[in-house]
Amino acid sequence: MSVTAIKEIIKMLENPSLIKIKEEEKEVLENGDIVLKRCEKCGEIIDYIHEGYTMTRDCACMRSYRVQARLKRFQDLSITDRNSKSDIFSNSKKITNAEERAIYEELYNYANNFNISKKGYIFSGGVGTGKTFLANCICNQLSEKGFSVLSFSLGAYFNKIRFSTDEEEKLIQAVKDVDLLFIDDLGSEYINRENGKMWGEEKIFRLFDERYRTGKPILITTNLDAGEIKEHLKVKGVDKIYDRLKSECKYREFNWESKREVLK
Ligand SMILES: Nc1ncnc2c1ncn2[C@@H]1O[C@H](COP(=O)(O)OP(=O)(O)OP(=O)(O)O)[C@@H](O)[C@H]1O
Ligand SMILES: [Mg+2]
Ligand SMILES: [Zn+2]
């Protein structure tokens, strides 16, 4: 759906009077239902009489609005900018080697056949290898298809929740509700473990644990390798988070030169 179409729907639903409904002459359906109102925009039935009762249902515009409103909620809560204009599969260039092409193909298919019971992914590799770009392509493709995405780095997450339990509860609820959770640049955050202060560890544990319980996928980009992730995510010295992550996510290595130089 195009951005203009979405804007139009949002405008319409913010001002329901803009939905023009034609009062039809009585139209009797095959099952005996009587049509009272149809949406002029999509033509679907809104009000009808079924076995003597007047019923109301959402038309395609309203359903679409609900999806858009839901997506917008997660978009507003997301802390990273997913560059929805530029980071899209059709803009991808410089796929120089077979290994990288295979990953792009795999993830292109993943995005196009996505559902919430799919596994997640960990993209691990050096700086500038295009991990965030590809993750954004997936997220933007999913949004286009009506799936919700929530994205942030753990550093930004910490900053949001540090002084506000309300903010934490709001984000945790979103973490549980959203279709795909994307954590960018895992390992760049500082986890305070000094003097027995477990604040960071506890917050990370809660975040992952709440997400695991939903069974829905997590997408992670990181400069850390598997061993380093395991070490980094230890909680009270135990690798509970990584252990679970290993079985929930497919691990893909971005083993090539930085694109930052090449693309300049
Ligand atoms: N396939 C691609 N097509 C076009 N541009 C790309 C592609 N992959 C990456 N880029 C561009 O290359 C630059 C580096 O990519 P990106 O930021 O995704 O790297 P990264 O692996 O996330 O790096 P870091 O580890 O530092 O976070 C960005 O400007 C990005 O837009
Ligand atoms: Mg990145
Ligand atoms: Zn409609």
TrEMBL record:
Key words, A-Z: ATP-binding, Helicase, Hydrolase, Nucleotide-binding
InterPro entries in alphabetical order: AAA+_ATPase (IPR003593), IstB_ATP-bd (IPR002611), P-loop_NTPase (IPR027417)
SUPFAM superfamilies registered for this protein in UniProt: P-loop containing nucleoside triphosphate hydrolases (SSF52540)
Entries under Gene3D superfamilies matching the protein: P-loop containing nucleotide triphosphate hydrolases
Protein name, per record: DNA helicase
SMART domains noted in UniProt: AAA
Superkingdom of source: Bacteria
Lineage: Bacteria, Fusobacteriati, Fusobacteriota, Fusobacteriia, Fusobacteriales
GO biological process annotation, one example: DNA replication
Alphabetized Pfam families for the sequence: IstB_IS21 (PF01695)
